[in-house]
Fold this sequence. Notes:
The chain is of the alpha/beta class. Helix content is 51%, strand content 16%.
Amino acid sequence: xGAVLAAVLAASLAGCSSTGGKRAEERAAQAAEGRSAVxxxxxxxxxxxxxxxxxxxxxxxxKGAKQAAVKDNINFLYSHSDEGQQQAELVxxxxxxxxxxxxxxxxxxxxxxxxxxxxxxxxxxxITVNSGSAESKAFGAxxxxxxxxxxxxxxxxxxxxxxxxxxxxxxLHEQGNVGHEQRCAGAKKTFDGTMQNLYVDGTNMPDVxxxxxxxxxxxxxxxxxxxxxxxxxxxxxxAKQTAGSKxxxxxxxxxxxxxxxxxxxTLGFAVDQQPYLQGYEAVDLLWLYRYNQNVLGGGLPxxxxxxxxxxxxxxxxxxYTNRGTR
Length: 326
């Protein structure tokens, strides 16, 4: 990342003064060496998400956040729980620590509303990421960074139409996650065929595979399965094979395994919301707010997706998925 950052800065500052260019190069070099590129105070920012254990998507979000934290001289704290009440308790812990900035996801907004309000009342600037774009402003957050889940779902429905699919299974792996419901509803809105939801226990991957397999085995007319997270795409591929189905497997989100699946065409397409950007921009925007009272979005979400990725894109992205930043 340091080399890329240095190259971008060098290119963008080609028309600047030699002094300005040298300073920018110095800041990029410091960040590449794990040193701060700024001389602002050592603020503490906490990120609390709805991630379960071992979720590779959130590993990518964290990488982005940590990279920005190094650059911005931030002490970065991360915690997570896929249970709404426990996530709220983790946010309260961050408030009690009197952090200088807070980043939260709102997959289960009803559980988070009161505690986010407490943070705002305590004077802690809040940015929401990934889930909760509809609730972010009402809860008092500065801005929301992520993709609009309904728009992302609509993009999936359109892509399924392009692929001439007629009967689709949308697999939801987390009960109560409003973003997941919005994805499937958005896809159903624009899809010309029929779509049904399948609820599975995302904490039990063998159960996920068995549930999809049973559905495909009982209905051979299903010609596409859409999973809502990269780890579940692999389970769907295995379920398809065991059931003897010809359904195409498609997924939300991107990682190295999904990129490989796109390359060997065991997967049809993926919808990338660029989680690295969600982490990086959340930390960087909090720093900008603390430093300069900057806010992005103008009251609207800062969108990081959706981007539909197919086999023709996979080779170009392989380098970045392998290092865990896409």
